[in-house]
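<instruction>
Derive structure tokens from the sequence
<data>
Labelled lines for chain and fold
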Amino acid sequence: MKMKKSRILKDRFILYTMLVSLVLGVLYLIKGFKNGFPPFGCVIIAANFLYIPFALIFSKKGFPYFYLAYSGILIFSMATERTYLYNNYTALFIVCVIIMLQPKIRTFAIIFYFTAISIAFLLVEKDISNYFIHIARSLWYIGLIEYVLQDKFKRKKLVLYEDERKILDQLCNGKIYQKEVEGFSENTIYRKLKAARERNGNVTRDQLVESYRIEREKSEAEREGI
């Protein structure tokens, strides 16, 4: 347990999202004291504070699932508070981030979003044209994300997390097999490399290692002024 906490404290992604959740929770509390606490406002406040222990327990792997539920809360909060639902894409942005982080729940996340937004519009929106505008823009936005994820745009640099870089450093330094990599279990290494490969254009393991080697050598040469 102590080792797990230490790893979480070193994970910038988790620390960043925990900090943002804390700040949002405090800001929503301040708003509530000034303007009152509507039902969905209370749910949002609770969700922001609950994310902190959730992140400590489940780390990065729990982020997509927690925030998928959070996007649903936002959708119905926007609908009940009449905050221009058709032109608010905060929940859609969250869903797109989830698609990038956890491709295996991509279909479920997209269905969840469009189902929730359809129900919300049905409950509060009288002008059906606003609904179709929102759907068209959402499809356009998701289409762009899918286009980028399929590596249609050439990346100048690999998109990697700190743990992935530590694993790749060892593989570049002569560790041929994943079981030789220190500091991680074989299952963890497999999961992290798989996520890194998918995030960087569905490349093979060897392609990822070679691309990282080239990128690292170039970075070292620039630091030495070569």
In short: The first helix runs from residue 2 to 10. The mean pLDDT is 81.
